[in-house]
Design brief:
Elements: H1 3-6, E1 14-18, H2 27-36, E2 38-43, E3 61-64, E4 68-75, E5 82-89, H3 93-100, E6 104-107, H4 112-124, E7 128-132, H5 144-156, E8 159-162, H6 165-173, E9 181-183, H7 191-194, E10 211-215, H8 224-236, E11 242-246, H9 252-262, E12 267-270, H10 275-284, E13 287-290, H11 299-307, E14 311-314, H12 320-323, E15 329-330, H13 335-346, H14 361-374
Parallel strand pairs: 1-2, 1-6, 2-3, 6-7, 7-8, 8-9, 10-11, 10-13, 11-12, 13-14, 14-15
Antiparallel strand pairs: 4-5
Helix pairs in contact: 2-14, 3-4, 8-9, 8-13
Amino acid sequence: MQVARLAEGRKRKRLAILVNQLTPYRLPLYGILAENLDVLVMHGGMERNRNWALSVPESLRTHKVWTFQVPMWKRTGVEGVKDRIYVHLNIGLLWCLPRFRPDIIVTVEMGLRTVFAVLYGKLMRVPVWVWWGGTLHSERNVSQGRRRLRRWMVRNVRRWISYGATSTEYLESIGAHREDILQIQNCVPQETFTQESSESKKWFDGLPRPVLLCVGQLIERKGVGRFVDACGRAAERGEQFSVVLVGNGPEKDSLYKLAEQYGLKNFEILPNQSQETLNEMYRTADVFVFPTLEDVWGLVVNEAMWAGIPVLCSQLAGCAKELLPESCTFDPTSPESFDAALDRALTGKLPLPDRARLLTWQQVGDLLVESLESGVPVR
């Protein structure tokens, strides 16, 4: 279906959502928005390092715009650690936005796509909301050019949507006013992870307990190598436990070699799994560990908390302060902090997760709908 036809015969407010790519955890939220507004998600196609299975709600319309994906290296908040990212040059927005004629625009980042959105909004007098996830940690090494661009955006954008408290903290640090920020929470379809299955596999039967589970890309930014280091030191102290990593990435072979160097016998790496299978794994393991060196949130923490497993989380994850008590967090760049936290995990001293800290995707969706329809962030 051509974008030019999508604007015909619509009575509800037209909402254009501008994103890099479609992601499975956002689709339920877009579905809620599509039940209340005339939504079109304009995206640049899936990035080369992603292989998500997507289930697009029937009420949601999407459109792939003409986009160049440019691979780049980004300096993270930890010195010496870089991350492979893709910059999307969504040139197709220049004609897709005028054809759709949105009444509201939500743009998810602070780059060229948002520049297009802001300029279009000014020209057509359309309100623009910027959906942002960066934290003081994740943005500490951005270039001067990006800093200047963001200062321009703060002067020209009146409405913001933040991933959570740490993203709000960053937006305020660059000049956004708190009353202009809708603070939501990154969320997952919690029904998947609260459901107990009588047919659940005993994934880790036969492995020495406790079983430490880590889920995510096997890349340097995720801190998995430092996690294996900490496990190796624990094994050298005589601790008995098992380690299971779930994910794919370029560090897989080096992680096996590192585990072998430490003599970690009960160490296994499994490929990416479906959310339903991950739910079974969370429920079968004893502790979930998220050792990231930089994440603007960390949705696997939400998943593990909904599943009811104790969580040990890096302080450098955007979700850490908002979702977890201090006893469940640690500094992954400090071996002493990591070792002390791992000792708490291995000796059963971590509390069960407090689900009251989590927002459901329905709650987040309602906040978005009410704010976008009213034109101001709701509290």
